[in-house]
Amino acid sequence: MKSTNIVWHQGQITKQDRQQLNGHKSAVLWFTGLSGAGKSTLSVAVEKKLYERGIHTYILDGDNVRHGLNKNLGFLPEDRTENIRRIGEVSKLFCDAGIMTLTAFISPYRRDRNMVRALMTDEEFIEIYVKCALDECEKRDPKGLYKKARNGEIIGFTGIDAPYEAPEHPELVIETDRQTLAQSVHEVLHFLEKEGYI
Q1: Which domains does the chain have, with CATH numbers?
Q2: How far apart are CA 36 and CA 18, in angstroms?
Q3: Catalytic site residue from 26, 35, 107, 184
Q4: Is 184 a catalytic residue?
């Protein structure tokens, strides 16, 4: 049942006030890519470097969010869309709070990522395509999911029997099968510096 008779309650402190207090802009760094591409690893390493520089951060990771907020969702296309919609709304709130938010979700569908982009104002959504060849992701297989998918134990697994729609115009492409973690982190930080986020 949808909520009715609701009105947005405006506070006295704005997003800009919070950013000024923090000393940096807020934005959503949306890491997207195949399972095993290195989204979580990269977001954790980037967050550490940002934290060391005094940047207020928070990571929303796919598996972590499914333990709580989205524990009632599966992996059917409509569930994936709702998963990303909820994360988009939470990310928007974090951005409004003045936080540099890092998200690590496969988020396989362009329309879902574009839906989240549309929630933000210009320049608040930074799509980072964590690009890695499927065969390399399968070699890494940190959770053993590709093996299960290949054995038919998991149906609808992204990259095997469900699609991954690569971003067409991401703000940044990080090729984790061609560069080290340190190089990847440097590339993200350089982008944030160059564009005036930090």
Answers
A1: 18-194 (3.40.50.300)
A2: 35
A3: 107
A4: no
